[in-house]
Amino acid sequence: MRGAVGILVRKEISELRRDRRVLFLTLVMPVLLYPAVIGGMDRMESQRAASLHEQSLLVGVDGGSTVLRSVLEGDPSLALVQRGREYFESAVEAGEISAGVILPDQIADLDAALPDTVTIVARLTREGGREATRRIQDALAGWVSTERQARWSAAGGRGLPEDQLAFVARDVSTQQEASGAEAGKMLVYLLLMTLFMAASAFATDMVAGEKERGTLETLMLAPVDRRVIARAKLLVVSGGSTITGVLSLMSLSLSYRFGWLSVDNSDAAVLEGTTLLAISLLIIPLAVLLGSILLAVSAWARSLKEAQYYVLPVMLLVFVPALLSMNQSVELSSFVAILPVANVAFVMRDVLAHRIDWPMLVLVSGSTLLWITLLVRWVSQLLNREETLLGFDPEPFFARTPGGRSRALGLGMLLTIVGYFYFGQWLQTQNLILGLALSLWVLLPAMGMGVVRMVRLPDLDWRRVLSLQSAPANSYLGAALLGIGVILPIIGGLQPLAAQLLPMPEADAARMAEVMGQFTMWQALLLAALAPAIMEEFVFRGIFLGLYREDNSKQRAVVMSALGFALIHLSIHRFAPTFVLGLVLGALVVRHASLLPAMIMHLVYNSSLLLGSRYYEEHWVLSGPPLDLDGPLAWAISVGLVWIGAWLCGLTGSLRPPVEPVT
Amino acid sequence: MNEPMVSARGLTKIYPGHDGSDKRAVDNIDFECEAGQIFGLLGLNGAGKTTTQRMLSTALTPTAGVARIAGYDVAKDPRSVRENIGFLSGTTGLYHRLTAVEMIRYFGELHGVRGAELKLRVDELLATFGIDEYADTRCEKLSTGMKQKVSIARTVVHDPPVLILDEPTSGLDVLAASTTLDFVSEVKEQGKCVIFSTHIMSEAEKLCDRIAIIHDGCIRATGTLDELRASTGEHYLEDIFRQVVQEPGA
What we know:
- Chain A is mainly α.
- Chain A has helices at residues 2-17, 20-54, 66-73, 85-94, 127-154, 175-213, 216-220, 226-257, 273-300, 304-323, 334-337, 342-352, 358-384, 386-390, 402-430, 432-455, 462-465, 473-485, 487-501, 506-517, 521-551, 554-568, 575-592, 596-615, 620-623, 632-649, and strands at 57-63, 78-82, 99-103, 116-122, 165-171.
- In chain A, helix 9 runs antiparallel to helix 10 (304-323).
- By secondary structure, chain B is α/β, with parallel strands linked by helices.
- Chain B contains nine helices and ten strands.
- The longest helix of chain B is centred in the C-terminal third of the chain and has 16 residues, at 174-189.
- Classes of the chains: A mainly alpha, B alpha/beta.
- The A-B interface holds A 213-215, 217-225, 386, 389-390, 393, 395-396, 399-401, 404 and B 15-18, 20, 54, 57-61, 79-80, 82-83, 85, 87, 89, 91-96, 107, 110-112, 154.
């Protein structure tokens, strides 16, 4: 009996562990998905709280005894401006102040029977207004409590301490804003759910269903580009779910209008006019995003049933961040703006509450377009795969094929980035200088060599693959000129532009400056200029770019290595500048099949930044160059240096095949 | 000398295995077929017939070797190849919620046949296969035989010069199978080149001008039926087949 159980159990386990659905649901989801979702939410919430905590809120104040005024003045989280009370409402609406507070002219004896009233004027549908109200109340109530305690003790513990300041909060939110904010809590959720259900029904049937019924192969053998097939299917999925979404929105709007939802008349205005139009328009990107995600899932799955298995985890992954929009206190930040689906959900919520942050809207639109493009591209690639078309088992993850090697390389890069960050950070907390030196000289190349092993390329000429060759002498001079020339375009042009959309928090900038401040000039040059120039170039341009180039185009290899290079700096605020720098460095390496020019450029670039930071303002690397280095002459010199440098390096044409290397 | 309508030279397909080893599903095969001929691929299940035909139809990319159809390379110009072939297999499905006529019309349009030409072609096919009566019936409600007729009509709606038929009678009853075989004979008369795979000896005997016996991904013998008889000394194709696949080293 026991033997039979063992046999049955072994067979079931053997089958289950070969079923990728089971592996996904029992391993990937609990191990990666849940911590990622919950960690992400927690991080967003703590970032929001930290960001608000750091801010000193501007509060208008009118009237009041000097005692109460000095209490508020003594609170570092509030910045007071003296204004007349008639000005408060318009100032709050215009966002000039977070709240206005009308203090009683004189405070009565704290033991008096009638309390004195403090009126706070704020827009309570906004996070800033609620936070300012809370801070004012906390500061004044804290003072009352301390004062009464002192008096009560002085009186020998007689009498009961009671609140002697009454707070009246006057909300200046319009009825529409208040109703919209309320509606935003549920409406966005309902719309997301409707769109997702519709899109999943269409998408799973349209690819996985066709695969199962045996029609996909016939379709793919028609003389039609598979990108066209992917786009057509996406059009139907997103069009169908858009119609579903708009219909449910119209139905809801009519239900409000005719009072079928038993709400008071004020709520009827929530879904009318421009709001209704804006929400209907926002349904389109949301439907396209969800449609492309689900089409990709459907193309990836081998059968309809398998696709349906994946719908739930995908729903969790896209819904949970988006559902944060139900919490009015979580604002649309630059981080949220780049999260697919969640970003549009947040914009929807804000539109309902009649608040639109235009720069954020631009960022949301840009990131949504980018996500859609990437996803459609992925669906097309999936449709081109033989295993998708015929429902085969996919090839092994680490197969010795171009695809297997690319996957191994991608995973290796990711592990290098994460490992370098966590282990390197731990080393640096033990001893900053030694830790940094070990991270760059030992950890990074060791991880890079580990990736070489993972990729398992056949025997190759490693000097060629890793670009461990010399280059023409003039390219060294050109690289040095490029290193200086690109500073102003990157620091004075690109960085401020990126900071407009993703401003670096003061605390992060201060922390970086503090770390750099602990080095002597020579230590900084050695550890933050020379070591990265040699080791980052060896790993990113030598190993990663070299390995990518074996199975991919040069352009793709340059982009992928630049992406890894930007990601390893693990700061979204520095992503754009490091990515662009990575592209230039990659192009240099490809041009001469040599790491040396890139190492020189990297060394000159980093050294110049370090020297600049020492002899000019501390933060100019992050906040843009000092004014005397940002004039037309400086720009003209920079452009000139870049041009001469590029010419000397042979980069003035397009990316050409590398010239015969000088060995 | 004119180029054959279908040719394969050193055609190979290797699948990477989960245990790190590679499986050669098709190993370095050569054959060719002229217009107006039926070339039979005869083999056991898993011999490499389907993989070969999928490479010819551009569903799979060859790992090595070259295959050309109507003058186009399957790897370099798959779109032109697709314009010139009709592909049908035993597992080919129909869109259940489309009617027979919608199904045929859809594939005609995908192949660039439009307007009056398409209407004429669809009407002609409905009449040829005797499915006019069921033209507006949803495919899910058709009998197996009718479904097969719709599949065949879908395959030839754009009048391709080459037909790739992968075990087209698999799973069909006798009447439905005979409809398919009659159709294959007819298209041969029309001058089309047919690559026909089967493991049913009688079908190959009855239809094929030339036969390749494929086993473990390799072509073990090829020729007309008479040539195969002469080379093996056997009369019946079943005996010829058994002898070829059971040869030492086979």
